[in-house]
Specification:
The complex is a heterodimer. Chain A is mainly alpha-helical. The two termini of chain A are 27 Å apart. In chain B, helix 2 packs antiparallel against helix 3. Chain B is α+β, with helices and mostly antiparallel strands. Chain B is elongated and about 90 Å long. The chains are: A mainly alpha, B alpha+beta. The interface between A and B is large, with 98 and 102 residues.
């Protein structure tokens, strides 16, 4: 390939800067910035995870043993904010940064300096947010949804609002960069309908981000002015409406849910064909399904609000619209299964996580369908059933996809193979304990345990103890992940080949492992048979 | 009641002493669809509830759970067959096809048909829930941090004056739930031996059975949510907004629930207890309360005047 000759000479004049500060803080290189995002996200995963450990420890048995209720609420709130905005979203941005230019044959992101800025905002945003835990008055304790009037009772409103503003600015810049890169920097011959599904999923996600992050910014700004400047947007006594906040918040919040899952769909759509050694089933249907889900995400927000006393017509509309999402989501699941059918499968760690994703995400989808039925939701709403539902889609969904992607592309990033044995140990521990952790929470919710409570009746004791044990062990299992990464980056002796996986297709596998500091300085010549989706029926 | 399955004595069913018995009972009960009076250890499924409407979410839950289970078995079954048959280690050679219009049409259409059936069932339940007309009694529920206030507005078309009270966590639960109190949550029990830790109050809401009761629900500070699983619904209590919902309890008994919207530090400690009495007993209780409230005629009246609306039926005339 044409580019194969181009990366021999760049170590002399534009390799990675030697100076640590210059390399990492001043970086405009998509790979280094991608690495920064991924390291940041892994750090946040452990911080957010430690909050979860506090929650599960307090819920281990009835009675208050460890923390005061207010601190418990700070933990639930911070756990959500850190995991959503600090762990899951930056991980996808990091994966996008690393892989999108490699997958479409671009030399870098379209806007490299903005790329640097959008990453380096994040540490400041999270310093601001996490510092509230150490300040008088404490951190936010009104839930990540920040419903007024409760959220306005906190002393940390300004910190949270400005942290959310920063995260939003970072996300919007990242999204603009991704759209600009995908639409302008594809190598000649990389038609839109030949792009990897992961690139498609990020293109659509980026539009969702640009559409909804400003809405969140507006909502929290109104909280800020309600708290400090005497406005009454959400204050009934001043003519405002507390429910208005929920409408605005969830107009952001539901697309946000898909921002956290669409790139995961993309990842799984890359991994399954590689290890089934068979092209993805229904490529165009997959792309169209992602686009449909993205569109529907804008018209389902009030399904988070079925218990606020919506008019009958609104409840019926949002119930139907929400149920519709099951159709494109079902198509995706059926297509993944069909991709496996007739393949020649091997089960390396990325594939194991991808298979677990398909099964467990689908279980989360089932409970999602149950929650969409308004009369049943009157019982499920705000119970542990909901907690189980969204952890199935976010932990065994989004997080498992991120872990799968990490194993899948780690050899390309580091040039060394990770330990397959330890990868599998990590997988089996994760998949067993995550189910011990979250499956019993369905029962707790059905039996009537509300979410966000620090203590409970003894009727809920059995399943809470099981769930906590699962939680501790799932948390501990992620230390194996850390170990596998550290080993692969610094200690592994086993060199990765350029292609890494026998069935891997796509431009990212045509560059050497580890991917050199600069790739595709000269656009690659595209051969359709090298692409995962080069032969699309028209 | 045409759905069956509610035992007339469900509310005073003896509480099993041994955990094993409790688990067995729970599993059997979940299989037979019987009602729990309240959460039981090891409870696996939603309660059927004790009201005219509460079987609706329960039946819907069971149907959709069944549908999801069948789809899950088919999809995951196909996946496991694929994982077994099409392994490289078994010598499987990958096929080339990546597309099949016929099956794609089938697995787009079939889910749509299933969803239409589910949507139809969901809509029917919702329409009857939304209809609060024809109620014979009105209770105003107000959420506060962290207690509930109940005001009796009217009963059988007659306005009720000055019957209203605060209802908060019982003192035993409250002492036990303090950080490192050293008290055992297992020891907080009602007279019948049922554990009431965090689900008991000082003054329960007392209501009659076989009466369509309209609740008007609001809040005084932040948003709360009034939820008793046995009644089959929850409704947010929002400051500045008055929501309404209704119930018609079929069996006398004590039904317990909790606040279901995060409302601050003691959100987990503001339970709800509804005591449903036979009509005659309720009327006697109400008369006692009115008598207590009436004689000294204190100026500080906290209850609201009964709204004279067409929604209050003059006589009991419910269908059932």
């Amino acid at each position: 390939m044409a580019h194969a000759a181009t990366h021999d000479h760049h170590d002399d004049h534009h390799g990675a800067p030697k100076n640590f500060f210059t390399r990492w803080c001043m970086s405009t290189n998509h790979k280094d910035i991608g690495t920064l995002y991924l390291v940041f996200s892994l750090t946040m995963l452990f911080i957010g995870g430690s909050f979860a450990m506090v929650i599960r420890a307090e819920l281990f048995k009835p009675g208050m043993q460890l923390v005061q209720p207010y601190f418990f609420n700070e933990m639930t709130t911070m756990h959500a904010l850190v995991m959503i905005f600090g762990a899951i979203m930056p991980a996808f941005v990091g994966l996008g940064n690393w892989m999108i230019p490699l997958m479409i044959g671009a030399p870098d992101m379209a806007l490299p300096r903005m790329n640097n800025l959008s990453f380096w905002i994040l540490p400041f945003a999270f310093t601001l947010l996490l510092s509230t835990l150490f300040l008088p008055g404490g951190g936010p304790a009104g839930g990540w949804t920040m419903y007024p009037p409760l959220s306005l009772q906190g002393d940390s409103v300004a910190y949270v609002v400005f942290a959310v503003h920063l995260m939003g600015i970072s996300s919007i810049m990242g999204a603009i960069n991704i759209i600009a890169t995908i639409l302008n920097m594809r190598a000649p011959g990389m038609d839109l309908l030949k792009m990897p599904v992961f690139v498609w999923s990020w293109l659509i996600t980026a539009f969702l981000l640009i559409a909804v992050m400003p809405v969140l910014a507006g909502a929290v700004t109104m909280l800020l002015t309600d708290k400090y400047f005497g406005t009454s947007f959400f204050n009934a006594a001043g003519g405002g409406d507390p429910v208005l906040f929920q409408h605005i918040f969830w107009f952001f919040g539901h697309p946000e849910v898909y921002i956290m899952i669409l790139p995961a769909f993309g990842i799984i759509s890359e991994i399954i064909p590689t290890f089934a050694r068979k092209p993805i089933f229904g490529y165009k249907a997959m792309v169209f399904a992602i686009a449909s889900i993205a569109f529907l995400s804008f018209i389902v927000w009030a399904h988070h609000m079925f218990a606020v006393g919506l008019p009958l017509g609104a409840e019926i509309f949002f119930m139907y619209a929400t149920m519709l999402i099951a159709v494109p989501t079902g198509i995706k699941v059926f297509n993944w299964v069909s991709t496996m059918w007739g393949g020649s499968m091997t089960f390396e760690t990325p594939m194991l996580f991808a298979i677990a994703f398909v099964i467990l995400f689908t279980i989360g989808g089932f409970s999602g369908l149950m929650l969409a039925l308004v009369p049943a939701d009157f019982q499920y709403h705000d119970t542990y059933f909901v907690v189980a539902h969204f952890h199935y889609v976010l932990v065994t969904g989004a997080l498992f996809a991120i872990i799968a992607a990490s194993y899948y592309w780690l050899p390309k990033w580091t040039g060394r193979m990770y330990s397959e044995t330890w990868g599998k140990i990590h997988f089996w521990n994760s998949v067993i304990w995550v189910n011990v952790l979250f499956f019993p929470q369905h029962f707790l919710g059905l039996a009537g345990m509300p979410r966000r409570i620090p203590d409970y009746n003894v009727a809920f004791a059995n399943f809470n103890m099981i769930s906590s044990i699962g939680g501790f062990l799932f948390g501990a299992s992620q230390l194996i992940f850390l170990g596998v990464i550290v080993h692969a980056v610094w200690f592994s002796k086993k060199k990765a080949t350029d292609r890494v996986w026998e069935g891997a297709k796509g431009l990212e596998w045509t560059v050497p492992s580890p991917a050199p500091f600069h790739t595709f300085d000269v656009p690659p010549v595209i051969h359709d048979e090298d692409l995962a989706h080069g032969h699309v029926d028209h | 009641m045409t759905c069956g399955g509610i035992r007339p004595d469900g509310f005073k069913r003896a509480v099993p002493l041994k955990r094993a018995v409790a688990w067995t009972t729970a599993i059997l009960a979940s299989a037979s669809g019987a009602a729990w009076a309240n959460p039981e250890p090891g409870q696996l499924n939603m309660t059927r509830g004790v009201t005219e409407w509460s079987p609706t979410p329960y039946m819907l839950n069971n149907v959709v759970l069944g549908v999801c289970t069948v789809i899950g078995i088919l999809v995951f079954g196909a996946m496991f067959i694929a994982m077994f048959r099409f392994r490289k280690s078994r010598g499987a050679v990958a096929e080339k096809w990546a597309h099949n219009t016929k099956v794609e049409i089938v697995w787009t259409t079939v889910p749509v048909l299933i969803l239409i059936v589910l949507a139809y069932m969901g809509t029917g339940g919702l329409r009857s829930f939304a209809d609060t007309t024809g109620s014979q009694m009105t209770v105003k529920v107000t959420g506060y941090q962290w207690k509930w206030r109940y005001d009796y507005v009217d009963y059988k078309g007659k306005a009720i004056d000055k019957v209203g009270f605060m209802s908060k966590l019982d003192s035993r639960s409250d002492e036990t739930r303090q950080l490192n109190s050293g008290l055992d949550p297992n020891a907080v029990k009602a007279s019948d031996g049922y554990n009431t830790y965090l689900i008991d109050v000082d003054h329960p809401l007392v209501v009659p059975v076989d009466t369509k009761i309209r609740f008007v629900i609001t809040a005084g500070d932040v948003i709360h949510s009034w939820w008793v699983p046995q009644l089959g619904w929850k409704m947010d209590a929002i400051p500045g907004i008055v929501n309404s919902a209704w119930t018609n309890i079929r069996e006398p008994g004590t039904y317990r629930g909790q606040c279901a919207e995060l409302c601050g530090q003691d959100h987990g400690f503001m339970p709800i207890v509804v005591k449903a009495l036979p009509k005659a007993e309720f009327e006697k209780w109400l008369a006692d309360q009115q008598a207590k409230a009436a004689p000294p005629a204190p100026a500080a009246a906290s209850t609201a005047q009964a709204p004279k609306t067409a929604q209050i039926a003059p006589a009991p005339s419910h269908q059932g």
